[in-house]
Amino acid sequence: MRISEALISLVASRTYKMQDSVEETRFLQYTVICLVALTVMAAFGTYNLFVGRYLLSGCLFASVGTLGWGWSLIYRGRARVSVYRMNGFLFCCLLAYLLSVGGEGGSMSFWAFVFPPVAFFIFGRSEGSIWCLFVGLILTAHFFAPIGWFAIHDHGLLYPIRFLITFAIISVFTYFFEHFR
């Protein structure tokens, strides 16, 4: 059995079904997001464990645990919005930490580009906009704070401007995609 068939079977066989078709779609999107995120975070968590970045590895494995736990709560009908918000907040914390760690040339900041699609697909347009604005403020503080306060890389002036414009464009595109969905 392929992974997609197993996933469809698992989701279809659950006893708790969402009453609202929008909520059901949101759960299915969250399931796919969790599957991808769990795989990527577990892989990077393992890599960072082997290269000695224990705190980063621990943060990634904690994210894996909270995503899996949250998904199981929604799957069993125990919670929905609170799980989405909790995992959204934890992802924001992880992004802030990735920004502060930086990586090679500050490349860990690119993970922020994942946030707008996730926020809009999970929270919808209104709440997703608030979340994206919040992350945008975190990014702005990171890029324009004095070195050593929040940031450890001096990106110059053009990199942050280009990065923030790209983040805004992805947010706007995703907003309108969610609007017309």
Task: Tell me what you see in this structure.
Helix 4 packs parallel to helix 5. Helices cover 75% and strands 0% of the residues. The chain has 181 residues and is mainly alpha-helical. It is globular.
Strand fraction band? under 5%
Order of helices and strands: HHHHHH
Helical content class: over 70%
Find the structural class using helix and strand composition.
Answer: mainly alpha
Unreliable stretches: none
What is the gyration radius calculated from CA atoms? 17 Å
Morphology call: globular
Mean pLDDT: 85
Jot down its keywords:
6 helices, mainly alpha, 181 residues, 75% helix, 0% strand
Tell me the layout of helices and strands:
Elements: H1 3-12, H2 21-50, H3 54-75, H4 81-101, H5 115-144, H6 158-180
What's this, in brief?
The chain has 6 helices and no strands. It has helices spanning 3-12, 21-50, 54-75, 81-101, 115-144, 158-180.
